Amino acid sequence: MRHTAVLLLISAVSMSVYARTSQAGSGAENDSVDSKVEFIKTSSHPDVKEILQKDRPSETAGIPVPHFAVRTADNKFVLTIGGQINPILGADFGNDLYEVSGAGIGFVTSMIPVPPVNGKKSDFYINPLNANIDFQVVGFGGTRNQVTGYLKFGTNGESAAIKLKKAYVSWMGITAGLKSTLFEDGDAASPPTIDPQGPSGMVSTSAYEVSYVSPSFKGFRFAVGLDMPNYYTSNGVYRGHDFKTWREEEIGGKPVADPEAFNQNVPDIPMWVEYAASDYNRVRLSGIIRNFTYRDLLEGKRRNSVGWGVMLSGNLNPVEPLILYLQAAYGKGIGAYIQDISGQPLSFIPDDSRPGHMTPSPMMGLTFGATYNITPKWQVNAVVSEARIWNVGPYATAAADAPDNVNNYKYGFYAAGNVFYNISSYLQVGVEYLYGRRGTWNAGSALDNRLQMQIMFTL
Predict the structure, then answer these.
(1) Are strands 301-316 and 322-332 parallel, antiparallel or unpaired?
(2) Smaller CB count within 10 Å for the chain: N or C?
(3) How many percent of the chain have pLDDT more than 90?
(4) 69: three-class secondary structure by DSSP
(5) Rounded to an integer, what distance in angstroms lies between the CA atom of residue 291 and that of residue 289?
(6) Model confidence over 61-83: pLDDT tens digits?
(7) Distance between CA atoms of 357 and 248, rounded to whole angstroms?
(8) What predicted TM-score, i.e. pTM, was given to this entire model?
(9) Alpha carbon of 381 to those of 338, 384, 418, 436: distances in Å?
(10) Cβ density class 151-172: b for 16+ within 10 Å, e for less
């Protein structure tokens, strides 16, 4: 609330200063028409709606352009506050994913307990902790020098604590702050779901980033950025099979590398090129390069391991009511960017054939989805997704330090189907079925089914 009060105070002062400046510039005897402050409905002002849409986040769970805004008549200052309140009630069948710490109303397939606990294979819940609010301030709207400041706060579905989710500034294609990484394609990531987590194989994460997105050149665009990296690595203990000793010393089950010896001074570099014939007929090729620095304990040397990833994504709108979604990513060491693998300490592990070295693990994320707009009020969505990681069996098994084999991760499969009904532009209800399965390396697999509904209010 303190952040909200400060932002509103700054906005009020800014409007006052702008009005005074404009008045002084035009003469005290006449009020300038351009300095007039208006409270407007954005649906009645397409120019303002387009200005606000330009620099808002492009993400599956994004808040749409709010219904109302405050602006000066010349759009040199625009302020809007948006939000969503989305109580969800539902039940799990086959497992108790809702009660797992870090999951809750997020259907996180990597957290499905393996094996299920007897007596805890179902659960009923009512959860109001899925709410977000955002603030957007635009200067010089509609001009080449348009500048946007954006903030988003919200809950995480588990507690009432308010968290900062987005905070960035955009100007002339340059964006800096906490935002969705460029490696993510929010428009192709997934059709809408009640589940705030989303598909297991979806590339989705927020990063501290500086990026540039070019203007469109007859449908072609490109982008490049620098991300502050996050690494989820093993602890450097050698669990390989190629060597038992090194220079006459036992190395099996002992540290051969220190992944925390050095600060990471090289940013991740995401980039993409895209062609769009229209909003939902588009294709994008993305890539990312990341460098991980660690210490080789056997040779006493500082070393680097390079991770990389590529992704093909896009949409297809073959007939007006139908929109298709595709996202296929593959790489090594990119677990921080794949929904289900993020947080698993498996992206970089000791190299089996080169003791003392660490190597990036191969992994993939696949997502296919579809939206069918039956009428302007009725919408049906379906999505299937899989995340998978290879060559990490001994390290995943060793990281399984809880009864539900947490971090013992091999793959996660996710499927969702839902129906939404828009009662009005403010109120939407929906029903959704979810299915998930988590596979491990040595403990089998387990599944969960979820049936839930939402009553979502959008400001």
Answers:
(1) antiparallel
(2) N
(3) 82
(4) strand
(5) 7
(6) 789 999 999 999 999 999 999 99
(7) 18
(8) 0.90
(9) 22, 11, 5, 17
(10) bbbbbbbeeeebeebbbbebee
